[in-house]
Amino acid sequence: MREEIIANQNDPRVLEQMYRINKAGFKKEFTSLYPELKGNSLADFWNERLNYEKEEISWGTSKELLFVVIASLIAGFIAKFPAIFAIDEEFFYPRNIGFIVFPALALYFAWRNKLSTGKVAAIIGLMLIGLIYINSLPGKETDTLILSCIHLALCLWSVLGFAYVGETSNNEARRLGFLKYNGDLVVICALIGISGLLMSGITVGLFSLIGFNIEKFYFQNIAVFGLAAIPIVGTFLTQTNPQLVGKVSPVIAKIFSPLVLVMLVIYLVAMIYSGKDPYNDREFLMIFNALLIGVMAIIFFSVAETSKSGKSQAEVWILLLLSIVTIIVNGVALSAIVFRISEMGFTPNRTAVLGANVLILINLLLVSTQLFAVISKKKDINGVGKVIASYLPVYLVWSVIVTFVFPLIFGFR
């Protein structure tokens, strides 16, 4: 890209096309080149454009605000279905919790990215297939039902990713941008959630002082709509005001990566001395796998931030070491699962966890190889992001298999 920018430094049309295809990459390369191009009127313009930050909060267009309000109300209404239509909560929420928010978010990005009618129809069709399928499964709570509910949420998340990527030829950059969006969304949703919790406590407390006990009514009605609206409002804010968490997310990634690395090393040593092991303790194995997924998310989030701002050699070393330690954790978990299968045979849960751990192990090995190449100065850091982005569809395929095929293979047990 560096050579293309130099070659087309006086062609505004080509520069605009390059920027729209890969905004993060373009900004990084242009910023490093700008000292050489300074004085060129077009280059000066692009420097101002790329480094301009709004001080005020943007509330988008009236159409966007209307969409957010309507989507939030619909999401809250769906969340209230059990109370409104006398549906068993234990039946409704495990199956349909993903449909409270994901369809609204997917349609928001489909509208924002101006997707073709065919792609919008595909998004709606996939959502409807999942909705009909999961609610058609037998009502009895079984392992395959629980696995289908969990992995259907991952499928819906993938459909959201499809809407986010939009109409672009540079899918890898947009997929990595999708991971970054998820990290930013977690940060801003946490802030909105804390603020909402404080407001709720103050509201209920103030009314109790004047003799009105509104706690039950408030949390059963108003709070439900508020919780359903948080991801929608959070998405709207991150997309219209990227500067809100644009500087917070990299700081969080930078702080927690080394802390998690130290914690993992200490935890592995402590596990040896504690006498606990995942081979004979099922609950410990579940916690071990949850830890693995959490660390993977931190690695992915850190790499997503890397592609935007670049990283120092020390930060890349931390990510490499964290990946290696996570591979060790994954190896322990994987060997424990194989041991339990050899002793007690295949079950839906063991098979699902085995497949997920194998996929994660392969992904970690690919990421570690790329990080080592960056340390060796054989490849650019963006290659790590490309590996992660290109591997995401593999997780989607596995989620589809667990959601739709496992119940048939294991007889809905």
Plain-language structure description:
The protein has 413 residues and is mainly alpha-helical. It folds into three domains: 2-51, no CATH class; 62-243, no CATH class; 247-409, no CATH class. The protein is 83% helix and 0% strand. The protein has 18 helices and no strands. Helix 11 packs antiparallel against helix 12 and helix 15 runs antiparallel to helix 16. The protein is globular and about 70 Å long. The termini are far apart. The model has no long low-confidence stretch (mean pLDDT 85).
How does the SSE layout of this entry go?
Layout: H1 2-7, H2 12-21, H3 23-37, H4 41-51, H5 62-79, H6 81-85, H7 89-96, H8 98-112, H9 117-136, H10 143-165, H11 171-209, H12 215-240, H13 243-246, H14 248-274, H15 282-309, H16 313-344, H17 348-375, H18 382-409
Keywords, please?
mainly alpha, 18 helices, about 425 residues, 3 domains
The percent range for helix content is: over 70%
- What is the terminal separation in angstroms? 53 Å
How does the major sheet shape up?
none
Strand fraction: under 5%
Average of per-residue pLDDT values: 85
| Alpha plus pi helix count | 18
| Alpha-beta classification | mainly alpha
What is the total domain count?
Answer: 3
Pattern of helices and strands: HHHHHHHHHHHHHHHHHH
Q: What is the overall silhouette? A: globular
CA radius of gyration: 24 Å
Number of strands: 0
Unreliable stretches (pLDDT < 50, length at least 5) are none
